[in-house]
Amino acid sequence: MPAIHPSPDRMASLQRAERERFIATHPRSMALARAAQAHYLFGVPLHWMRDWPSPATLFVQHAQGTTLTCADDLAHADFCLGDTGAMFGHSPAPLARAIAQQAAQGLTCMLPSILAATVGEGLQRVFGLPVWQMALTASDANRFVLRWARAITGRPQLLVFDGCYHGAVDDTLVDLDPATGATLARPSVLGQVHNHAAFTRVVPFNDLAALEAALSRGDVACLLAEPALTNFGLVPPAPGFWAAARDLCRAHGTLFVCDETHTISTALGGYAQAHALEPDFLVVGKAVAGGLPCAVYGFTQAMARRMAAAKDAAPEGHSGIGTTLAGNALTLAALDAALNHLHTAANYTHMLGIAAALETGLRGRIAQAGMPWTVTRLGARMELQFMPHTPRDAQDVRDHAQGELEALTHLFMLNRGVLLTPFHSMLLVSPATTAADVVRLLSVFDALLAALVPA
Ligand SMILES: Cc1ncc(COP(=O)(O)O)c(C=O)c1O
Predict the structure, then answer these.
(1) Domains, the chain
(2) What one-character-per-residue DSSP string does 145-180 give?
(3) What is the pTM of this model?
């Protein structure tokens, strides 16, 4: 039986060797990182870009399809895909064409372009809901939907699942105190002065009794949830969970807001349609327009009527919903191209087939090496999990966290031309991902196993 937990000494020496290897093979990224230090906080345009485990950030020369070429001219098979923004591949040709064409015809006018009605039809065709509004990011879309939900129900409380992430939305940046069931402010959040714990309840995912208890006071405007937790590892819903959860929301007059930003990896049109979740609101960002900044939220006709009534009843002035550039002409052109050419059955057939092959390959190797790890897959996205079973909830993930092993895995793979999402071990397959990319990833995974468990 192999030693399945590498010793701390072995982990440290592997980590050291990988850092040295990165420095030796990425001189230009190292130099660009030093130059960028002068003008950017932490040396990067967005501080999360330092969350990769490499000694310096990988600077990108270009990205096309599934291949990301760094400043040192090294080609990487990209399974991170911009943490879903590039889920349909980098710069797909129909999208690049539409953007180039519109770029010469006006970018933003604070008026709808002639494509608006067509795009609305496309959104209904792909995602099923009849009425839509636009934002530039999924964070914004979620924030706006929360405002609408509170406005139309007249209820103050929001309900989320422990381990949720819905973007930079203050109300949702909370944790569950497992000892008391109380809501805690998330300690990592900076500059927080309002007590969102007072207006947000948190319950464990897959826990119907806790969900019912949280709803039973009759003051929850909406449940904001991903169909599966995707930002705390990947935690799928237990069989029957959503049917029961949906019924509970209806019984207590609570709206159900489904954040599909990541779970559109499940199937064409997302998880909610594939599993008949019937949300009142649906939010999709990131990849919805192929990675051009865009997010949309859709809703039922019943919601549309209540939203119109709330707006009509409010005094003239700022609604607190919307930003100047939302729904701009460039975004509409990109979204139109994406709805017609990226959100297609053919693309999903390809993505799901490749993802299944990757899952099978990883599982087989894990079993053969006798590692206590698992792989959880949701359509085109999967998670390599350093725990022996599919997690039930966020606490289960916390209990099995192996940060060092995760960081080593990411750097080991990056050094051999395979990119995983840095925040956890998420792998995403695009329409441009090939069987050869899968072979490449699996051969690097073989090398990782051999390094961790020397013969
Ligand atoms: C489920 C979900 N919703 C919303 C967001 C926010 O997206 P953005 O950062 O593009 O606003 C994220 C980001 O990771 C997400 O995972």
Answers:
(1) 9-59 (no CATH), 93-341 (3.40.640.10)
(2) HHHHHHHHH---EEEEETT---SS-GGG-EEE-TTT
(3) 0.97
